[in-house]
Specification:
Layout: E1 9-18, H1 23-33, E2 37-46, E3 50-59, H2 63-72, E4 78-85, H3 86-91, H4 107-113, H5 118-127, H6 132-135, E5 141-146, H7 163-177, E6 180-185, H8 191-201, E7 207-210, H9 217-228, E8 233-235, H10 236-256, E9 264-268, H11 272-284, E10 288-292, H12 296-304, E11 308-309, H13 312-317, E12 321-324, E13 342-345, H14 355-360, E14 365-368, H15 378-387, H16 395-407, H17 421-437
Parallel strand pairs: 5-6, 5-7, 7-8, 9-10, 9-12, 10-11, 12-13, 13-14
Antiparallel strand pairs: 1-3, 1-4, 2-3
Helix pairs in contact: 7-15, 8-9, 10-11, 10-16, 15-17, 16-17
Length: 446
């Protein structure tokens, strides 16, 4: 079982519309009738008696376009000029680049940043390796490493096909926390090869972020590297997800008066995400876990961590909080829901049970996976660890991150706006404090 991520079609529809009341309204109605969501509407040209507008449209598949064309074909006053794939257009040439932090305009500048001037700095670092933190980017570099075996919900599509995801993570690192996230694509399925490769490239980085590496290999790779290296190593599919789930649960507990630490938790789907969630919630103080997965080895791993193996109905009915990460829509049926249940059906685009249906069936709170985005966690989590010169990212640091994220949510929301830089700054500060408090930080003189 695994989380399936949305593969929605996102297009920009350029239309020529008569500039009179009712025409734009008819267009938006047609879009809605064809099961599409509307994003931005932008006027790109104002003509005599008409406007040309760009309308961003979100749909589950390509059939929407033919439906819209058919619906407006005989309607005078609206013409479709063109259709642009927004996602493909945005990804043209990639999403990231390397930019200099100093100006080089003269030969003298060149002599300072390169040879011969750079030699003196190299000598200083050779004499005192700790000066690399002062004179290089190493301390602010994070390797985003994947072998492409678990890219989103697409599965094993290879590292190169996963590069757009890694670029996206890199972009978010820089945008939200000022970190240099550097994609590293590994063309191997062998865990030991991955471990050896990362070990040898580790001196370039202040931390290692493992990304979209399938279970169970991801557990071995993370554990061995974390023990081997003196810099943080974190598998985001496990721990980033877990941090945001804990943040959501902290707010759910506040809204519903559920005693989180005394609640029983059911986890449906025991892959990377489900296992990471279980580990962090156990560290937070929850003691009773019930779980199920189609993979027997995943169940055995869950039991070894202290969980109880049950069938699907048993997991739901014996747990106060149910967290599903399976990718199987409608897996949880209304008759399984009991009064007082808290349901987090996290698979996208179609959850294991619709939240509204879960509440109608007796749950006191239900949500799907739209808000549980790892990007709420990893920028601040890594920033705090790097600032503290931490040797690892431990559970105390993850819990501190979850509490900080939860504290910024608007009343009634589970989590805050993912693009709010104040959230990531607060997460980084609290993670740094937790690193020092738990003695995994290193004091470094400026």
């Amino acid at each position: 079982m695994r989380i399936e991520y949305s593969n929605k079609v996102i297009k920009k529809l350029r239309v020529k519309i008569v500039d009179k009341p009712g025409f734009l309204g008819h267009m938006t109605t047609v879009i809605g009738q064809n099961a599409c969501m509307i994003g931005e509407i932008t006027t790109v040209h104002l003509g005599k008696g008409y406007k040309i507008r760009d309308i961003d449209i979100y749909a589950d598949n390509e059939s929407w376009l033919q439906g819209i064309i058919k619906s407006i074909k005989d309607f005078d006053g609206i013409d479709i000029i063109g259709v642009v794939d927004i996602v493909e257009e945005t990804h043209m040439g990639g999403k990231i680049e390397t930019v200099p932090t100093v100006d080089v305009e003269t030969i003298d500048d060149l002599k300072i940043i390169y040879t011969p001037g750079v030699a003196s700095v190299c000598k200083k670092i050779h004499e005192d390796p700790s000066l690399a933190d002062k004179y290089t980017t190493i301390r602010n570099n994070v390797a985003i490493v994947t072998n492409g075996t678990a890219i989103l919900g697409l599965g094993d599509i290879g590292a190169v096909a996963g590069m757009p995801v890694m670029e996206g993570k890199s972009l978010l690192f820089k945008l939200l926390s000022g970190i240099n996230g550097i994609p590293v694509l590994l063309d191997t399925h062998d865990p030991q090869e991955i471990i050896n490769t990362i070990k040898h490239i580790a001196p370039t980085y202040g931390a290692i972020k493992l990304e979209d590496i399938k279970a169970p290999e991801c557990f071995e790779i993370e554990d061995k590297l974390d023990a081997m290296l003196d810099i943080p190593v974190l598998h985001d599919d496990q721990h980033g997800t877990a941090v945001v789930v804990l943040a959501a649960l902290l707010n759910i507990a506040k809204y519903t008066f559920v005693n989180l630490k005394e609640a029983s938790v059911g986890i449906i789907g025991l892959g990377a995400a489900g296992t990471g969630i279980m580990k962090l919630l156990k560290s937070y103080g929850i003691s009773e876990f019930n779980g199920i997965d189609l993979d027997q080895s995943a169940v055995e791993r869950f039991v070894s961590l202290g969980g109880n193996s049950k069938d699907l109905r048993g997991v739901v009915e014996s747990s106060k909080i149910v967290i599903a990460t399976t990718g199987c829509p409608d897996l949880i049926t209304p008759d399984m829901i009991q009064p007082g249940h808290v349901i987090l059906a996290l698979s996208n685009p179609n959850p294991e049970i619709d939240p509204e249906l879960a509440v109608e069936s007796g749950a006191i709170f239900a949500a799907d996976g739209k808000s549980v985005n790892n990007a709420l966690a990893f920028p601040g989590l890594f920033k705090g660890a790097l600032t503290a010169h931490a040797v690892t990212i431990n559970n105390a640091m993850k819990i501190a991150a979850a509490k900080a994220i939860a504290s910024f949510a608007l009343d009634g929301d589970l989590v805050p706006n993912i693009l709010d830089k104040n959230v990531h700054a607060a997460v980084a500060k609290d993670v740094e404090t937790a690193a020092y408090r738990t003695s995994v930080a290193r004091y470094v003189e400026d």
